[in-house]
Amino acid sequence: MENNKPAEQAEFHSFGWYAARVSPHMPKKAFKAVPGRLWGGLIYAVIALGGIFSIAFFDLNIWLKFLIAGVLGSSFASLGFLGHEILHGTVVRKRWLRNFLGAVAFWPLTTGPELWKKWHNMEHHHHTQDEHKDPDAWPSVNKLAKSRFLRWMYRIPFTIRALSGFIALAFTFTLHSSHMFVTYIKDFNKEKQVKVWVQFILPWATWIGLLLWIGPVKWIFAFLLPLLIANFIVMAYISTNHRLNPLVPVNDPLANSLTVTVPKWVDVLHFNFSYHTEHHLFPGMNPKYYPIVKRRIKDMWPDRYHEMPMSKAMIALWKTPRVYFEQDQLVDPTRAAAYGSLGNGLDPNDIKSRDVDLSKLKLGKKKEE
Ligand SMILES: [Zn+2]
Ligand SMILES: [Zn+2]
């Protein structure tokens, strides 16, 4: 394989290494918990309850129902972003309050706080883009060779696969969250297991209770459609945060993460969730200060940092496959075509592939074309 990495890119540093170099330049208050962010959460919660009750109690015009469903979906997603922050401890410090508020904020997305902390804080943050340990990382071609489902998926023609991949963003978060429950439930001790079960069942019980109360038609607008919209919004970030980056041997956030840029008002609505590289350097920092972290990173390591508009990242995601080959290439096994990853030859302005030889991998299908 050709090696087109710049020499300095070849070495990796941990997130602690970067954090130690950036934190002296940060104001102390950036590391303080900010309960004031809960006001934003309260506004979203009031909007969400208002929307659900207006659909439940009134016979509204269909267009108004769609509009309310859109607002609900957007509020569900924003509450999820706030829940993410709360459970990183950047909003309140008291453990019980953190768990309680995190549970409330994640209620619409039906993810319990204990499960989230294990899946996201422990596993995703500590093992980002580690093929085996990051629960959010996409598989390599070696795993593909072992999975009948993945092999089947990559035989679907490209456009249909890309389109299905995008439609799937509308339910992937909920699906993945349930998968995480199954994956990690046995890792908790007996006492915690009960907690995790209760936190999984209670939100679903509420939403199913709502279905029984208001009936399926209203429920579609009050919960199901908003849930799909919220899934799409959070997945638009989650899928662009790491999936264009390589798998890495060291958890180096500048190599394995992408910061997307969105209009300022979107950052306000989503609590600066777009600053994902900065978040991986400082998961415990008030995101209001991420723009300062970004300036520092760009001063110190301009060649290593990746950022692009969300729309460009989504287009790149559409055009590239999601199977890793030799850690830093993305490969379409059906066409035996490899694309680079960010920092490793992928140019989002000009996405090109080259042929690779996958014949040794026994993918159950010979190379076409
Ligand atoms: Zn991440
Ligand atoms: Zn996080």
TrEMBL record:
One of its GO terms (biological process) is lipid biosynthetic process. GO terms for cellular component: membrane. Coiled coil: none annotated. Residues 63-308 form the Fatty acid desaturase domain. The chain crosses the membrane at residues 38-57, 63-84, 96-116, 152-175, 196-214, 220-238. InterPro entries: FA_desaturase_dom, Fatty_acid_desaturase. GO terms for molecular function: oxidoreductase activity, acting on paired donors, with oxidation of a pair of donors resulting in the reduction of molecular oxygen to two molecules of water. Keywords: Membrane, Transmembrane, Transmembrane helix. It holds the Pfam family FA_desaturase. PANTHER family: DELTA(5) FATTY ACID DESATURASE C-RELATED (PTHR19353:SF19), FATTY ACID DESATURASE 2 (PTHR19353). This is Acyl-CoA desaturase.
